[in-house]
Amino acid sequence: MNTRNRIYVIITLSIAILFLIIAIVQSQIDSFSAITKMTEEEVKNFLSGYLAGFPKPWE
Amino acid sequence: MTKNKEKNITLSLRPITNHKIRIVRIITQLVIFSLLNGLIFGLARVSLILPIEYPTGGPFSTVWSGFEALQYGLTIFTFPYLVIAIFGLFGAVAGKTTCGWACPMGLFQDLFSYIPIKKKKVSKPTEKSLRSFAVFIIIFALVFSLVIGISYNKNGSAAKDAYGIWGNIPYSVLDPVATIFATLFYYLKWGIQAETLGAEMGDWKFWFIARILFLAIILILITLYPRAYCRWFCPTGYILGFFNNFSLFGLKINKNRCPTGCNKCEKACPVQVPILDYDKNITHPNCTNCGECIDACPEGALKIGFRF
Ligand code: SF4
Ligand code: SF4
Ligand code: SF4
After folding, report:
1. Model confidence pLDDT, tens digit, residues A35-46
2. Could you tell me the pTM of the whole model?
3. What distance, in Å, lies between the first and last C-alpha atoms of chain A?
4. Residue ranges per domain, chain A?
5. What is the ipTM metric for this complex?
6. Residue B299 CB–ligand 3 contact under 6 Å
Protein backbone atom coordinates (compact mmCIF):
# COMPACT_ATOMS: atom_id res chain seq x y z
CA MET A 1 0.00 0.00 0.00
CA ASN A 2 1.41 3.40 -0.90
CA THR A 3 1.41 6.48 1.30
CA ARG A 4 -1.60 8.00 -0.44
CA ASN A 5 -3.72 4.94 0.30
CA ARG A 6 -2.48 4.87 3.91
CA ILE A 7 -3.68 8.46 4.28
CA TYR A 8 -7.05 7.54 2.70
CA VAL A 9 -7.58 4.63 5.05
CA ILE A 10 -6.64 6.71 8.11
CA ILE A 11 -8.98 9.54 7.04
CA THR A 12 -11.83 7.11 6.30
CA LEU A 13 -11.46 5.36 9.64
CA SER A 14 -11.27 8.68 11.51
CA ILE A 15 -14.41 10.01 9.82
CA ALA A 16 -16.23 6.72 10.43
CA ILE A 17 -15.32 6.71 14.12
CA LEU A 18 -16.23 10.39 14.46
CA PHE A 19 -19.61 9.76 12.79
CA LEU A 20 -20.15 6.74 15.01
CA ILE A 21 -19.57 8.90 18.09
CA ILE A 22 -21.95 11.60 16.76
CA ALA A 23 -24.55 8.91 16.02
CA ILE A 24 -24.22 7.54 19.55
CA VAL A 25 -24.52 11.03 21.07
CA GLN A 26 -27.59 11.74 18.92
CA SER A 27 -29.03 8.27 19.77
CA GLN A 28 -29.60 7.66 16.06
CA ILE A 29 -30.03 3.98 16.77
CA ASP A 30 -33.44 4.87 18.25
CA SER A 31 -34.72 5.79 14.76
CA PHE A 32 -33.96 2.26 13.66
CA SER A 33 -35.15 0.45 16.77
CA ALA A 34 -38.85 1.04 15.93
CA ILE A 35 -38.80 -2.10 13.81
CA THR A 36 -37.67 -4.27 16.73
CA LYS A 37 -40.96 -3.71 18.56
CA MET A 38 -43.29 -4.12 15.57
CA THR A 39 -45.61 -7.05 15.01
CA GLU A 40 -45.44 -8.81 11.66
CA GLU A 41 -48.49 -6.84 10.45
CA GLU A 42 -46.90 -3.54 11.44
CA VAL A 43 -43.67 -4.47 9.68
CA LYS A 44 -45.66 -5.23 6.52
CA ASN A 45 -47.41 -1.86 6.68
CA PHE A 46 -44.22 0.01 7.56
CA LEU A 47 -42.37 -1.56 4.64
CA SER A 48 -45.30 -1.52 2.24
CA GLY A 49 -42.84 -1.07 -0.67
CA TYR A 50 -42.08 -4.80 -0.55
CA LEU A 51 -45.70 -5.64 -1.24
CA ALA A 52 -46.55 -2.88 -3.69
CA GLY A 53 -49.23 -3.99 -6.14
CA PHE A 54 -49.53 -7.22 -4.23
CA PRO A 55 -52.88 -8.69 -3.14
CA LYS A 56 -52.90 -8.51 0.65
CA PRO A 57 -54.88 -11.49 1.90
CA TRP A 58 -54.52 -10.37 5.52
CA GLU A 59 -56.44 -7.13 4.89
CA MET B 1 -3.79 -50.64 -0.05
CA THR B 2 -2.56 -50.80 -3.59
CA LYS B 3 -0.97 -47.77 -5.17
CA ASN B 4 -3.81 -47.61 -7.68
CA LYS B 5 -6.50 -47.49 -5.01
CA GLU B 6 -4.63 -44.79 -3.14
CA LYS B 7 -4.39 -42.77 -6.31
CA ASN B 8 -8.13 -43.15 -6.92
CA ILE B 9 -8.98 -41.97 -3.42
CA THR B 10 -6.67 -38.97 -3.77
CA LEU B 11 -8.25 -38.13 -7.10
CA SER B 12 -11.80 -38.36 -5.78
CA LEU B 13 -10.90 -36.18 -2.81
CA ARG B 14 -9.23 -33.59 -4.96
CA PRO B 15 -12.30 -31.43 -5.57
CA ILE B 16 -12.61 -31.00 -1.82
CA THR B 17 -8.96 -30.33 -1.08
CA ASN B 18 -8.80 -27.98 -4.03
CA HIS B 19 -11.64 -25.87 -2.69
CA LYS B 20 -10.73 -25.48 0.96
CA ILE B 21 -11.57 -21.80 1.09
CA ARG B 22 -14.81 -22.27 -0.82
CA ILE B 23 -16.02 -24.84 1.70
CA VAL B 24 -15.21 -22.63 4.71
CA ARG B 25 -16.85 -19.70 2.91
CA ILE B 26 -20.09 -21.54 2.08
CA ILE B 27 -20.37 -22.74 5.69
CA THR B 28 -19.80 -19.15 6.90
CA GLN B 29 -22.42 -17.84 4.45
CA LEU B 30 -24.97 -20.43 5.61
CA VAL B 31 -24.38 -19.74 9.31
CA ILE B 32 -24.74 -15.99 8.75
CA PHE B 33 -27.85 -16.56 6.60
CA SER B 34 -29.39 -18.51 9.49
CA LEU B 35 -28.59 -15.72 11.95
CA LEU B 36 -30.06 -13.11 9.58
CA ASN B 37 -33.26 -15.22 9.55
CA GLY B 38 -33.10 -15.66 13.31
CA LEU B 39 -36.84 -15.06 13.77
CA ILE B 40 -37.27 -18.68 12.70
CA PHE B 41 -35.31 -19.79 15.79
CA GLY B 42 -36.95 -17.33 18.13
CA LEU B 43 -34.29 -14.61 17.93
CA ALA B 44 -35.63 -11.04 17.97
CA ARG B 45 -35.25 -8.21 15.45
CA VAL B 46 -32.36 -5.98 16.49
CA SER B 47 -31.47 -2.47 15.37
CA LEU B 48 -28.08 -3.59 14.04
CA ILE B 49 -27.16 -2.20 10.60
CA LEU B 50 -24.98 -4.30 8.28
CA PRO B 51 -23.63 -3.50 4.80
CA ILE B 52 -25.39 -6.41 3.13
CA GLU B 53 -28.36 -6.91 0.81
CA TYR B 54 -31.18 -8.52 2.74
CA PRO B 55 -34.64 -6.97 3.15
CA THR B 56 -35.07 -5.50 6.61
CA GLY B 57 -38.76 -6.37 6.59
CA GLY B 58 -38.37 -9.94 5.41
CA PRO B 59 -40.61 -12.34 7.37
CA PHE B 60 -37.70 -13.62 9.49
CA SER B 61 -35.11 -10.82 9.17
CA THR B 62 -33.24 -9.81 12.27
CA VAL B 63 -31.14 -6.82 11.13
CA TRP B 64 -31.25 -3.67 9.00
CA SER B 65 -29.73 -3.72 5.54
CA GLY B 66 -27.29 -0.79 5.29
CA PHE B 67 -28.63 0.70 2.08
CA GLU B 68 -32.24 0.45 3.29
CA ALA B 69 -31.26 2.11 6.57
CA LEU B 70 -29.57 4.87 4.56
CA GLN B 71 -32.77 5.55 2.61
CA TYR B 72 -34.97 5.34 5.70
CA GLY B 73 -32.67 7.74 7.59
CA LEU B 74 -32.99 10.30 4.79
CA THR B 75 -36.79 9.98 4.58
CA ILE B 76 -37.02 11.03 8.24
CA PHE B 77 -34.64 13.90 7.49
CA THR B 78 -31.74 12.84 9.69
CA PHE B 79 -28.16 13.03 8.51
CA PRO B 80 -27.28 9.32 8.38
CA TYR B 81 -24.14 9.46 10.57
CA LEU B 82 -24.68 5.92 11.81
CA VAL B 83 -25.06 4.29 8.39
CA ILE B 84 -22.10 6.19 6.93
CA ALA B 85 -20.00 5.12 9.93
CA ILE B 86 -20.99 1.47 9.39
CA PHE B 87 -20.13 1.56 5.68
CA GLY B 88 -16.87 3.43 6.43
CA LEU B 89 -15.74 0.99 9.12
CA PHE B 90 -16.60 -2.20 7.23
CA GLY B 91 -15.25 -0.77 3.97
CA ALA B 92 -11.98 0.66 5.29
CA VAL B 93 -11.18 -2.48 7.27
CA ALA B 94 -12.28 -5.24 4.91
CA GLY B 95 -13.43 -3.71 1.60
CA LYS B 96 -16.00 -5.96 0.01
CA THR B 97 -15.34 -9.00 2.22
CA THR B 98 -18.91 -8.99 3.59
CA CYS B 99 -20.08 -9.53 -0.02
CA GLY B 100 -18.06 -12.70 -0.39
CA TRP B 101 -18.66 -14.10 3.06
CA ALA B 102 -21.88 -12.74 4.58
CA CYS B 103 -24.40 -11.32 2.13
CA PRO B 104 -27.46 -13.57 1.48
CA MET B 105 -27.88 -12.20 -2.04
CA GLY B 106 -24.24 -13.09 -2.68
CA LEU B 107 -24.93 -16.65 -1.48
CA PHE B 108 -28.05 -16.82 -3.65
CA GLN B 109 -26.04 -15.77 -6.72
CA ASP B 110 -23.26 -18.23 -5.87
CA LEU B 111 -25.84 -21.03 -5.85
CA PHE B 112 -27.15 -19.88 -9.24
CA SER B 113 -23.64 -19.85 -10.62
CA TYR B 114 -23.41 -23.61 -9.99
CA ILE B 115 -26.12 -24.23 -12.63
CA PRO B 116 -24.15 -26.11 -15.28
CA ILE B 117 -24.53 -23.67 -18.15
CA LYS B 118 -21.50 -22.22 -19.90
CA LYS B 119 -20.73 -18.92 -18.22
CA LYS B 120 -20.26 -15.80 -20.28
CA LYS B 121 -17.77 -12.97 -19.87
CA VAL B 122 -17.98 -9.32 -20.76
CA SER B 123 -15.21 -7.06 -22.01
CA LYS B 124 -13.57 -4.60 -19.61
CA PRO B 125 -15.24 -1.48 -21.10
CA THR B 126 -18.68 -3.18 -21.05
CA GLU B 127 -18.13 -4.22 -17.43
CA LYS B 128 -17.37 -0.60 -16.59
CA SER B 129 -20.41 0.80 -18.41
CA LEU B 130 -22.77 -1.79 -16.90
CA ARG B 131 -21.72 -0.61 -13.45
CA SER B 132 -23.56 2.65 -14.14
CA PHE B 133 -26.84 0.84 -13.35
CA ALA B 134 -25.69 0.78 -9.71
CA VAL B 135 -24.85 4.49 -9.83
CA PHE B 136 -28.30 5.20 -11.23
CA ILE B 137 -29.97 3.14 -8.48
CA ILE B 138 -27.95 4.91 -5.78
CA ILE B 139 -28.74 8.39 -7.13
CA PHE B 140 -32.44 7.56 -7.63
CA ALA B 141 -32.84 6.07 -4.15
CA LEU B 142 -30.94 8.77 -2.28
CA VAL B 143 -32.42 11.77 -4.11
CA PHE B 144 -35.95 10.37 -3.79
CA SER B 145 -35.41 9.63 -0.08
CA LEU B 146 -34.12 13.15 0.48
CA VAL B 147 -37.14 14.66 -1.30
CA ILE B 148 -39.43 12.63 0.96
CA GLY B 149 -37.33 13.70 3.96
CA ILE B 150 -37.67 17.38 3.05
CA SER B 151 -41.47 17.15 2.80
CA TYR B 152 -41.52 15.20 6.07
CA ASN B 153 -39.50 17.95 7.71
CA LYS B 154 -41.86 20.64 6.37
CA ASN B 155 -45.26 19.02 6.77
CA GLY B 156 -44.82 16.13 9.20
CA SER B 157 -45.61 12.45 8.80
CA ALA B 158 -48.78 13.05 6.75
CA ALA B 159 -46.55 14.31 3.91
CA LYS B 160 -44.44 11.15 4.18
CA ASP B 161 -47.54 8.94 4.11
CA ALA B 162 -48.61 10.69 0.90
CA TYR B 163 -45.70 8.95 -0.84
CA GLY B 164 -47.40 5.61 -0.07
CA ILE B 165 -45.34 2.59 -1.07
CA TRP B 166 -42.26 4.74 -1.66
CA GLY B 167 -42.47 6.49 1.70
CA ASN B 168 -40.02 4.56 3.88
CA ILE B 169 -37.53 2.83 1.56
CA PRO B 170 -38.03 3.95 -2.07
CA TYR B 171 -35.83 1.34 -3.77
CA SER B 172 -37.64 -1.51 -2.00
CA VAL B 173 -40.49 -1.17 -4.51
CA LEU B 174 -38.28 -2.63 -7.25
CA ASP B 175 -35.39 -4.22 -5.37
CA PRO B 176 -35.02 -7.83 -6.64
CA VAL B 177 -33.41 -8.84 -3.35
CA ALA B 178 -36.57 -7.76 -1.54
CA THR B 179 -38.66 -9.59 -4.14
CA ILE B 180 -36.86 -12.87 -3.46
CA PHE B 181 -36.52 -12.68 0.30
CA ALA B 182 -39.59 -10.62 1.27
CA THR B 183 -42.32 -10.37 -1.39
CA LEU B 184 -42.24 -13.96 -2.62
CA PHE B 185 -41.48 -15.23 0.86
CA TYR B 186 -44.61 -13.55 2.26
CA TYR B 187 -46.63 -14.88 -0.62
CA LEU B 188 -45.37 -18.43 -0.15
CA LYS B 189 -45.95 -18.19 3.56
CA TRP B 190 -49.53 -17.14 3.01
CA GLY B 191 -49.95 -19.66 0.19
CA ILE B 192 -51.59 -19.41 -3.20
CA GLN B 193 -55.24 -20.35 -2.88
CA ALA B 194 -56.40 -21.99 -6.05
CA GLU B 195 -60.07 -21.05 -5.81
CA THR B 196 -59.35 -17.32 -5.52
CA LEU B 197 -56.30 -17.21 -7.79
CA GLY B 198 -58.17 -15.58 -10.69
CA ALA B 199 -59.38 -12.74 -8.49
CA GLU B 200 -55.90 -12.28 -7.05
CA MET B 201 -54.31 -12.12 -10.49
CA GLY B 202 -56.78 -9.36 -11.31
CA ASP B 203 -55.52 -7.52 -8.24
CA TRP B 204 -51.88 -7.64 -9.26
CA LYS B 205 -50.77 -4.16 -9.99
CA PHE B 206 -48.20 -2.50 -12.16
CA TRP B 207 -45.41 -2.43 -9.56
CA PHE B 208 -45.83 -6.09 -8.77
CA ILE B 209 -45.43 -6.98 -12.45
CA ALA B 210 -42.52 -4.55 -12.77
CA ARG B 211 -40.64 -6.07 -9.85
CA ILE B 212 -41.24 -9.63 -11.05
CA LEU B 213 -39.92 -8.64 -14.50
CA PHE B 214 -36.84 -7.01 -12.99
CA LEU B 215 -36.27 -10.15 -10.90
CA ALA B 216 -36.62 -12.37 -13.98
CA ILE B 217 -33.99 -10.32 -15.81
CA ILE B 218 -31.66 -10.56 -12.81
CA LEU B 219 -32.17 -14.34 -12.54
CA ILE B 220 -31.26 -14.82 -16.20
CA LEU B 221 -28.22 -12.56 -15.83
CA ILE B 222 -26.88 -14.25 -12.69
CA THR B 223 -27.21 -17.67 -14.33
CA LEU B 224 -25.14 -16.57 -17.33
CA TYR B 225 -22.81 -14.07 -15.65
CA PRO B 226 -21.88 -15.13 -12.10
CA ARG B 227 -22.74 -12.44 -9.54
CA ALA B 228 -24.14 -10.12 -12.20
CA TYR B 229 -26.31 -8.33 -9.63
CA CYS B 230 -23.25 -7.64 -7.45
CA ARG B 231 -21.24 -6.40 -10.40
CA TRP B 232 -23.71 -4.15 -12.17
CA PHE B 233 -26.70 -3.33 -10.01
CA CYS B 234 -26.07 -3.64 -6.29
CA PRO B 235 -25.88 -0.25 -4.55
CA THR B 236 -24.28 -1.73 -1.41
CA GLY B 237 -21.67 -3.51 -3.49
CA TYR B 238 -20.89 -0.36 -5.46
CA ILE B 239 -20.28 1.63 -2.27
CA LEU B 240 -18.13 -1.11 -0.68
CA GLY B 241 -16.24 -1.66 -3.94
CA PHE B 242 -14.93 1.89 -3.73
CA PHE B 243 -13.18 1.02 -0.44
CA ASN B 244 -11.32 -1.89 -2.09
CA ASN B 245 -8.83 0.74 -3.31
CA PHE B 246 -7.37 1.15 0.15
CA SER B 247 -8.94 -1.35 2.55
CA LEU B 248 -6.71 -2.69 5.34
CA PHE B 249 -7.45 -6.32 4.50
CA GLY B 250 -7.55 -7.64 0.98
CA LEU B 251 -6.13 -9.85 -1.71
CA LYS B 252 -2.39 -9.70 -2.48
CA ILE B 253 -0.30 -11.25 -5.22
CA ASN B 254 3.36 -12.20 -4.91
CA LYS B 255 4.62 -11.87 -8.48
CA ASN B 256 7.90 -13.67 -7.60
CA ARG B 257 5.89 -16.83 -7.04
CA CYS B 258 4.04 -16.46 -10.33
CA PRO B 259 6.68 -17.02 -12.99
CA THR B 260 4.42 -18.75 -15.50
CA GLY B 261 1.40 -16.47 -15.48
CA CYS B 262 -0.74 -19.59 -15.96
CA ASN B 263 -3.94 -17.52 -15.63
CA LYS B 264 -5.74 -20.17 -13.56
CA CYS B 265 -6.62 -17.54 -10.97
CA GLU B 266 -8.37 -15.23 -13.44
CA LYS B 267 -10.28 -18.16 -14.92
CA ALA B 268 -11.47 -19.17 -11.43
CA CYS B 269 -12.56 -15.66 -10.44
CA PRO B 270 -16.36 -15.44 -10.60
CA VAL B 271 -16.39 -11.67 -11.01
CA GLN B 272 -13.78 -11.28 -13.74
CA VAL B 273 -11.09 -9.47 -11.75
CA PRO B 274 -7.99 -8.97 -13.98
CA ILE B 275 -5.72 -10.26 -11.19
CA LEU B 276 -2.51 -10.33 -13.24
CA ASP B 277 -2.83 -6.62 -14.06
CA TYR B 278 -1.88 -5.85 -10.46
CA ASP B 279 1.66 -5.88 -9.06
CA LYS B 280 0.90 -6.34 -5.37
CA ASN B 281 -2.51 -5.41 -3.94
CA ILE B 282 -5.60 -6.38 -5.92
CA THR B 283 -7.81 -3.32 -5.55
CA HIS B 284 -10.44 -4.04 -8.22
CA PRO B 285 -13.95 -2.92 -7.12
CA ASN B 286 -15.44 -6.33 -8.02
CA CYS B 287 -13.20 -8.37 -5.72
CA THR B 288 -15.13 -9.83 -2.78
CA ASN B 289 -12.10 -11.57 -1.19
CA CYS B 290 -13.90 -14.85 -1.84
CA GLY B 291 -10.66 -16.80 -2.20
CA GLU B 292 -11.62 -18.77 -5.33
CA CYS B 293 -8.41 -17.56 -7.01
CA ILE B 294 -6.32 -18.64 -4.00
CA ASP B 295 -7.81 -22.14 -4.25
CA ALA B 296 -7.01 -22.19 -7.96
CA CYS B 297 -3.40 -20.96 -7.83
CA PRO B 298 -0.96 -23.88 -7.99
CA GLU B 299 1.99 -21.73 -6.86
CA GLY B 300 0.50 -20.22 -3.70
CA ALA B 301 1.11 -16.74 -5.10
CA LEU B 302 -2.13 -15.25 -3.82
CA LYS B 303 -3.29 -14.61 -0.28
CA ILE B 304 -5.68 -12.48 1.68
CA GLY B 305 -3.98 -10.43 4.34
CA PHE B 306 -3.17 -7.14 6.02
CA ARG B 307 -2.08 -4.58 3.39
CA PHE B 308 -1.25 -1.44 5.41
S1 SF4 C 1 -22.55 -6.72 -4.07
FE2 SF4 C 1 -24.54 -6.48 -3.06
S3 SF4 C 1 -25.69 -8.36 -3.51
FE4 SF4 C 1 -23.53 -8.72 -3.98
S5 SF4 C 1 -22.74 -9.66 -2.16
FE6 SF4 C 1 -22.32 -7.45 -2.00
S7 SF4 C 1 -24.05 -6.57 -0.90
FE8 SF4 C 1 -24.63 -8.63 -1.56
S1 SF4 D 1 -9.93 -11.85 -7.35
FE2 SF4 D 1 -9.96 -13.77 -6.16
S3 SF4 D 1 -10.76 -13.18 -4.15
FE4 SF4 D 1 -11.25 -11.52 -5.58
S5 SF4 D 1 -13.30 -12.01 -6.31
FE6 SF4 D 1 -11.87 -12.89 -7.80
S7 SF4 D 1 -11.56 -14.99 -7.08
FE8 SF4 D 1 -12.49 -13.88 -5.39
S1 SF4 E 1 -2.85 -18.99 -10.73
FE2 SF4 E 1 -1.11 -18.37 -9.47
S3 SF4 E 1 0.68 -18.89 -10.72
FE4 SF4 E 1 -1.09 -18.91 -12.11
S5 SF4 E 1 -1.19 -16.84 -12.95
FE6 SF4 E 1 -2.48 -16.83 -11.14
S7 SF4 E 1 -1.15 -16.14 -9.48
FE8 SF4 E 1 0.18 -16.76 -11.16
Report:
1. 888 887 788 778
2. 0.90
3. 57
4. 22-52
5. 0.91
6. yes
